[in-house]
Amino acid sequence: MPDRTALIQTDIEQMEQYLTTKQLSEKTGIPEATFRYWRHVGEGPESFVLGKKRVVYKLSKLNEWLAAQENNNVRGGVA
User: Fold this and answer.
1) Strands of 54-58's sheet, edge to edge?
2) Residues 6+ apart with CB under 8 A from 45
3) Is the pTM of this model over 0.85?
4) pLDDT of 2
5) How far apart are CA 65 and CA 46, in angstroms?
6) What pLDDT digit, counting tens, does each position of 29-47 carry?
7) What is the phi/psi pair of residue 74, to 5°?
8) CA distance 50 to 40
């Protein structure tokens, strides 16, 4: 029978992580105001409102967006 603690740890690791605009800014080095502007004009990584006003970003969606940015802007070397 699998160890209960190991199963709980696996569940936690597989849970989606949500980032606030501030956390997103800290993680990427892009100012919070830029993310707010991009959200306003429909650009940048996907976000949604959690509850009545807390804007959050799924870490998986941020990673997808960053990969797309990288693929669209490769310079030097083979694309």
Assistant:
1) 18-20, 54-58, 48-50
2) 24, 35, 57, 61, 62, 64, 65, 66
3) no
4) 61
5) 8
6) 999 999 999 999 999 999 9
7) -70, 130
8) 17
Q: How far is CA 8 from CA 3, 13, 35, 48, 59, in A?
A: 9, 9, 34, 27, 20
Report whether 57 contacts 47 (CB < 8 A): yes
Q: What is the rounded distance in angstroms from the CA atom of residue 5 to the CA atom of residue 7? A: 5
End-to-end CA distance of the chain: 48
Q: Distance between CA atoms of 63 and 43, rounded to whole angstroms?
A: 15
Local structure of 34: helix, strand or coil? helix
> Exposed, middle or buried by CB within 10 Å (0-12, 13-18, 19+), for 18?
middle
